[in-house]
Structure to design on (190 residues):
């Protein structure tokens, strides 16, 4: 029994000595995500190019309208213009409008609001990026047809109802009234 105690005592001492000894630091295991990001960026560029080609093919067939290439990533044409209006919506204004959405084949996804119009507080409410930009381009009593690639429409998620993921859409938008923000932020004199 005496030897068993010595073995246990010796094992305990060796165990404590090993546990207290300095351990060599290990290098962290890292995974490079740059390849994933590059692949994702390339995939998104290819998707955008494909959607723009589809929209461009539709535009080429339409000889009745003059399309405008916006700086916001979409193309549009006016249905009605208001030559007497000179003001476009700014931050904090309230825009009264209506719109309907279609897929690129012309199938209606959402129709105009049956009981009237929508109201939008410019840049203070969440609506999809293309609609937000379009409402800043139209003046009172103007309307237009806008071709939005999915990147400025509902994106890779869709609206989880009628608009699928990565789906470009066409919107018919009419602005009826723009109420200026009474608390316009003035530029400071320099």
């Amino acid at each position: 029994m005496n030897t068993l105690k010595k073995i246990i005592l010796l094992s305990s001492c060796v165990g404590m000595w090993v546990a207290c000894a300095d351990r060599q630091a290990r290098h962290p295991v890292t995974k490079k995500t740059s390849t994933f990001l590059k692949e994702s960026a390339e995939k998104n560029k290819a998707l955008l190019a494909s959607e723009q080609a589809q929209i461009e093919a539709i535009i080429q067939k339409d000889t009745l309208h003059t399309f405008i290439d916006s700086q916001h990533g979409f193309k549009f044409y006016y249905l009605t213009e208001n030559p007497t209006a000179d003001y476009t919506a700014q931050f904090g204004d309230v825009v009264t409008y209506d719109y309907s959405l279609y897929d690129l084949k012309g199938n209606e996804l959402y129709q105009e609001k049956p009981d009237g119009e929508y109201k939008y507080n410019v840049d203070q409410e969440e609506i999809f990026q293309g609609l937000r930009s379009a409402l800043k381009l139209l003046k009172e009593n103007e309307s237009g047809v806008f071709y939005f690639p999915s990147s400025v429409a509902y994106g890779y998620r869709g609206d989880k109802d009628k608009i699928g993921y990565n789906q470009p859409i066409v919107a018919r938008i009419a602005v009826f009234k723009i109420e200026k923000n009474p608390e316009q932020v003035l530029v400071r004199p320099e």
Notes: The helical segments are 2-20, 34-61, 129-137. The chain has a mean pLDDT of 87. The longest helix spans residues 34-61.
